[in-house]
Design brief:
Blueprint (H helix, E strand, L loop, with lengths): L1 E6 L5 H10 L4 E4 L9 E7 L14 E4 L5 H5 L9 E2 L4 H19 L2 H9 L15 E5 L3 H12 L3 E5 L9 E4 L4 H5 L4 E4 L13 H6 L5 E4 L8 H9 L5 E4 L19 E3 L9 H16 L15
Parallel strand pairs: 1-2, 1-3, 3-4, 4-5, 6-7, 6-9, 7-8, 9-10, 10-11, 11-12
The chain binds glyoxylic acid (GLV).
Glyoxylic acid binds next to loops.
């Protein structure tokens, strides 16, 4: 019985060490050097090439190394009967909260404006915004979104939440799928923490931006497919949106000639808002591996029909 660690852009050496540190009896190989293909029961995957999972006849579980699973679901070479588990870690939620708090603090202190002014040696003070000056709308209320929205509400922000099916969360005013505009109309800041599914593509568009309260800001730490890039540029030009904090992009790395790089109202971070931490991932992988070894279902299984 073995685990195969497969990624085209993550170095999994430390992960291999950590898994073996937790259980030295588990055989862990790193793609493309997988010793006994028939022995592989679990594939840990992040940015895998197509057909990368075809050579393992006894595969029982595909474990995503991240919270997002859209690429695995789109890979038609993966047989539908093999379960897929997502990475669900407390540290993903606490790291995401820290990222959103940082962006909100920057918004409140006019960070985009002052950084632009500094490069032009311009002295132009503005009133700092307080918690109560901003209504925050969190889109996506899974583990991470529920944690983030409730934590922000506990800090004194007015927080609204929007999700596919209506949730009940203490301190958060929750809206369901068809209430998107009614929700956005009451928000100064839209925070997307949504997964990439057919239904979430292109949700952050001009129509939505126009419906928001002023000043209006976007924080996208969900997936780049949710944002219509040209609509954001237009909304910045026409002052419908005052600023955007973007961690995810349609194509990553963001192309060097993309318009976003030159916009003073856009803060770009390179998909770092909530990165899987190796030690936490190793513990979850070992737990899921021991579950499938004893015939139990893995934790955090993906519902293929919902897409997350
Ligand atoms: C990161 O974006 C993840 O999906 O974990």
């Amino acid at each position: 019985m073995a685990i195969a660690l497969i990624s085209t852009n993550r170095n999994f050496l430390e992960l291999q060490e950590q898994i073996q540190g937790l259980d030295p009896n588990i055989q862990v190989d790193i793609w493309p050097r997988i010793k006994a293909k028939e022995a592989v029961r679990m594939g840990v995957c992040w940015n895998i090439p197509e057909h990368a999972l075809s050579p393992y006849p006894n595969l029982q579980l595909i474990q995503s190394y991240g919270a997002g699973v859209a690429e695995l679901l789109e890979d038609t070479s993966i047989p539908a009967h093999i379960p897929i588990a997502r990475m669900s870690l407390e540290s993903l939620a606490t790291d995401m909260l820290a990222y959103i708090e940082w962006a909100l603090m920057d918004i409140r202190h006019h960070g985009l404006f002052y950084r632009a002014n500094q490069s032009a040696a311009t002295w132009a003070p503005k009133d700092t915004l307080r918690h109560q000056d901003l209504s925050i709308g969190v889109m996506g209320l899974g583990n991470i979104g529920s944690y983030v929205s409730q934590s922000l509400a506990a800090q004194g922000y007015r927080v609204l939440g929007w999700s596919r099916s209506k949730k009940e969360l203490p301190l958060v005013h929750c809206f369901e799928q068809q209430e998107l505009h009614n929700f956005a109309e009451q928000c100064n800041v839209l925070v997307s923490l949504l997964p990439n599914t057919d239904e979430t593509q292109g949700l952050l568009d001009l129509e939505l931006f126009k419906s928001m309260l002023k000043p209006s800001f976007i924080i996208n730490a969900g997936r780049g497919t949710q944002l219509v890039d040209e609509d954001l540029i237009y909304a910045l030009d026409t002052q419908h949106i005052q600023g955007a904090y973007l961690d995810v992009f349609m194509k990553e790395p963001l192309a060097q000639n993309h318009h976003f790089w030159n916009r003073k109202e856009v803060m770009i971070t390179p998909h770092i808002a909530a990165k899987t931490r190796v030690a936490d991932a190793a513990a979850l992988i070992v737990e899921n591996y021991s579950r499938i070894s004893s015939g139990m279902p893995a934790q955090f299984l993906v519902d293929r029909r919902k897409g997350y």
